[in-house]
């Protein structure tokens, strides 16, 4: 519990170039070398002057609730680009399908994000997904865990082809994903992004035998664990 006396007095603030702010009592300051500060929990922190944006003495303000301040990252437009693999059954033609995705959207102050994504994914053939991406930040400032869900449709990039009097026609299928992620901010407006999701994807194609006009429909269903690594820019 923070005493009323502490609320009434000024507290040293060390603003770092990474975006973090350390509040407490400065123990040592060497203007050309370093600063040492004891935070509100009694931890001692040491920073090179080159890491410091500014040092001030301000009235102490306790951390507000989620409904009063931005959680973690800033509100505004966001771009996320990532690569990923679907890990699962070795009985599929593609043991670990690869994908490259980009999501653009907007994050509001309470931690909720909504965006639209697309890219390229390689299953039995190449597909371009179009999907809605929803995320919610749980807690933290520079390291922020979140939950994510997305859904949409995959459009085939492969054109219809004919081989040995058989015509192959490709069509799209629904996609869905849900899981957890972690954003790790390393500098202002940039963070690494790691995700672990359950992923569902359908792909389908039709075989048409020219000599008797027989048609056969096939659907491939991917139920996989998806691992993604990318970057976050706000």
Can you describe this structure?
This protein has 234 residues and is mostly beta strands. It folds into two domains: 4-59, SH3 type barrels (Roll), CATH 2.30.30.100; 76-233, Beta Barrel (Porin). It is built from one helix and 15 strands. The strands form two sheets. Strands 6-7-8-9-10-13-14-15 form an eight-stranded antiparallel barrel. Strands 4-3-2-1-5 form a five-stranded antiparallel sheet. Strand 3 (34-39) and strand 4 form a beta hairpin. The longest helix is centred in the N-terminal third of the chain and has 5 residues, at 4-8. The radius of gyration is 25 Å and the shape is rod-shaped. The two termini are 34 Å apart. Residues 1-8 and 64-71 have low confidence and may be disordered.
């Amino acid at each position: 519990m923070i005493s009323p006396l502490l609320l009434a007095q000024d507290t040293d603030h060390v603003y770092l170039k990474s975006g973090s702010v350390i509040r407490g009592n400065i123990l040592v300051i060497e203007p050309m070398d370093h600063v040492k500060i004891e935070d509100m929990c009694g931890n001692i922190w040491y920073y090179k002057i080159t890491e410091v944006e500014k040092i001030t003495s301000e009235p102490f303000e306790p951390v507000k609730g989620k409904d009063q301040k931005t959680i973690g990252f800033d509100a505004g437009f966001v771009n996320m680009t990532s690569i990923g693999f679907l890990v699962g059954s070795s009985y599929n033609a593609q043991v670990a399908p690869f994908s490259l995705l980009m999501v653009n959207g907007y994050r509001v102050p309470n931690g909720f994000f909504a965006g639209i994504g697309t890219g390229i994914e390689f299953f039995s053939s190449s597909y371009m997904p179009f999907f809605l991406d929803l995320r919610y930040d749980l807690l933290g400032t520079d390291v922020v865990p979140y939950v994510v869900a997305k859904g949409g449709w995959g459009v085939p990039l492969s054109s219809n082809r004919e081989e040995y009097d058989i015509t192959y026609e490709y069509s799209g299928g629904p996609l869905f994903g849900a899981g957890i992620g972690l954003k790790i901010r390393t500098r202002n407006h940039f963070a690494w992004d790691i995700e672990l999701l359950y992923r569902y994807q359908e792909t389908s194609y039709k075989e048409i035998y020219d000599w008797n006009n027989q048609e056969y429909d096939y659907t491939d269903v991917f139920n996989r664990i998806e691992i993604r690594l990318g970057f976050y820019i706000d």
